[in-house]
Design goal:
The protein is mainly α. The chain has eleven helices and no strands.
Length: about 180
């Protein structure tokens, strides 16, 4: 019953968003903000196709909005559209290179495409924003590992495990493999 109500609420938000867009150019930014907000609501509730539609519509009128572009890029990533995610997240960084947090999602999208060489600098930049966040350290180590850079893998994973000994089995397993090879 709850899912039906949630789906109905998202459908109403979608309808409001598209009706709002029809008059967005004449009525002002209020309706356009409703479309963005509906995209956020759909994104947060896991209705990714709906979120994608809202963000894409919003960006037709606000093409340089880095927040909407970021959410759209993450939405593409979660939907498995990794090429679109990389393109969109790179656009965010082209517009505003100071948005270092976007690099983490860009790195994940590159990793999903087995593009470890381009993922590595993304995680390095994300580290400047997030510090020694365990997920950043782990994914940076995995990029090194997949590139055959075992010394760097060991270095990253040792820092991760020292600071977060219970991070996860995979970090310990990859560290052991890096030592072995």
């Amino acid at each position: 019953m709850r899912k039906i109500i949630c789906a109905g609420a998202v459908s109403i938000l979608l309808l409001i968003g598209f009706v709002g867009l029809a008059s967005a150019q004449t009525a002002g930014s209020g309706e356009l903000n409703m479309v963005y907000d509906a995209g956020l609501t759909a994104f947060n509730q896991g209705y990714l196709q709906t979120a994608q539609a809202h963000f894409e519509q919003y960006l037709k009128y606000q093409p340089g909005n880095t927040a909407a572009l970021s959410y759209l890029g993450i939405t593409y990533y979660k939907l498995g559209s990794f090429e679109a995610a990389v393109k969109t997240l790179r656009e965010v960084l082209r517009i505003d290179p100071t948005k270092l947090e976007v690099n983490y999602d860009l790195g994940l999208a590159c990793m999903a495409q087995a593009d470890y060489r381009n993922a590595l600098p993304c995680f390095e930049a994300a580290k400047k924003y997030f510090g020694d966040n365990p997920d950043v350290l782990y994914n940076k180590a995995m990029a090194h590992y997949n590139l055959g850079q075992l010394d760097e893998t060991i270095q990253e994973l040792e820092v991760l495990i020292k600071k977060n000994p219970n991070y996860g089995y995979s970090a310990h397993y990859i560290l052991a493999q890096a030592y072995f090879y």
